[in-house]
């Protein structure tokens, strides 16, 4: 019987040469013999993601028709490199920013400019790490493991210490006077923290932070998205016992972290799944998670506004083609084996990156949306930090900060 099926199949291929050609091309692509694809040499394991339906999210989203974010001001262009997270200390000094070259810097005003406040790596040197405007390019990725890549920043109002989520050195802390940061958490349950991303500090001193993947580090973060892998974790560091615990695991690129004003819940974004999640810390459902809001794009950090609600930074937007790829891992396996650079594959999937920020309340209701539809100010956004009626906007990918006046 098997022999008969084989004969029929071979006969069909010979009678229809276009089918034979298609099979040969498909086989060639699948083998990627010349290692020309974006995933060449990778143990690529695409998975189906738990993501809200494309039409449902896009049709209900309150878009910004005025593109107000595009009216913002660019500041410190080519003076500051990949400022992912922005902070101000208890004395109002700042902003502080973690840079792509491994430094944490502080703005001292027009006369003094930017100064190096802290370092995360004892191996840091200007010769090795400081590559100027090239710090936000792939050139820096080769030295990030030695130089560090500080991402999330938070000041502890009680101690004045600055806590840092560094992509390579884990959870760290530096005193109010700056200097070389001290590692607090590099492993949990014997496993390395491979990609510490963001953090927030509970009133009891515990520090919640994200580890975005147990498979890929920051330099390979694109593969977290391409695979849809879900090995990320929400972690908690206990300063009294100096131990780290897993709070939630199996997350798809967990990213930004923010405690609620009353500390009854914690928000964290899942970049791959385009959503913000709520982890309950009080009440009958303590220890459970629920979807706070589904988003039209890929969220990064989330920060509290001056009114006690939340700003989330979103790289926009999802596309219908992406949804097909997300729900069909086998298609992704073939698509990303095409011998075509990743940027062109992204464009062919309809991707047109631009910046969006959204303000939400405790119930996940959208209160306001600002976007930069033409990418005039920023094409990628990492964080929104509101202070004294100004939105300070950081970006992991560009050498600048944007500011936008904002009134409630």
UniProtKB/TrEMBL annotation:
InterPro entries reported for this sequence: 6-blade_b-propeller_TolB-like (IPR011042), Strictosidine_synth_cons-reg (IPR018119)
Tagged with keyword Membrane: yes
Source organism, top-level taxon: Eukaryota
Domain Strictosidine synthase conserved region: 197-284
GO molecular function: hydrolase activity
Transmembrane region(s): 12-31
Any single Gene Ontology cellular-component annotation: endomembrane system
Pfam families per the UniProt record, alphabetical: SSL_N, Str_synth
Keyword Magnesium among record annotations: no
Compartmental location: Vacuole
Alphabetically ordered keywords of this record: Glycoprotein, Membrane, Signal, Transmembrane, Transmembrane helix, Vacuole
Family: Belongs to the strictosidine synthase family.
Protein name: Calcium-dependent phosphotriesterase superfamily protein
Organism for this UniProt entry: Perilla frutescens var. hirtella (Perilla citriodora)
